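Have a close read of this protein, sequence plus structure tokens, and explain what the tokens say about the fold. Thanks in advance:
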Amino acid sequence: ATLQDLSFTIADTLNIPIENQKLLIAPKPGIQKHPFAPTPLSTLLPLTSPNSNSPSSAPQPRKSTSGIHTLSSAGSNTYTFHRLLPLSYLPNPSRSLEFLARLRDDPGIRAAMAKHRFSVPLLTEMDPAEHTTSESRTLGLNRNKGEVIELRLRTDAYDGYRDYRTIRKTLCHELAHCVFSEHDRDFWDLTAQIEKEVERADWKHGGRRLTDEEFYNPGDWEREKDATVVDERGDESGGVESRREIIARAAEERMRRERERERGGAQGGDR
């Protein structure tokens, strides 16, 4: 085994991204950082056994792996969304968590994130009411170039979920913001590239294009106002709560959080 093998094992077992690892080997060579060299561990950590240098204990060459990252590969644990967070104060947070997990585990998304080496600490949903005005509707947010990505999963009435494939296209848009902040030519070229990579790697759809329309058009998000919203399983979403009750509860939660922020600011000032 080599130092490089050890870093892969740590990433697989402890879910610590390889680029974040620091290994201290005493007394020499000291602290080792990414990228790790394929140095045999037997030369760095010699054993006290007299057989430690025998041919049988010699390091075996690492088998080459394909470019496809499986669930247990180091790449899949490194270049992914490391935490999923639904909004607990909205209806059916477990359904939102399933939706976020489906996006994280989407074959196309996984392939694109591995290729571009995207590692995002948090993927979460956004509250539609907090990101809707009379003039605009925000579909996704990327904070600090990939620290947090928020996606608009729910309908404005909180009675269901938007089309999965449309949300996935918005996620492609937000992933491109990990590299480019402005909506310039470089940004749109990267967005288009990620979209194609996602579609090509999506084995469920055989790499076919999902739509010929511009994906980031807010009009594509909304069905007719009176149409029934159906989730990706084909089940009608919602529940026993009325739309008015859901919106009122969400508003109360927003007011509570705002009051807490104001109290925190009064006590400790801005941070």
Remarks:
- The radius of gyration is 23 Å.
- The chain has two domains: 3-46, 79-222+230-243.
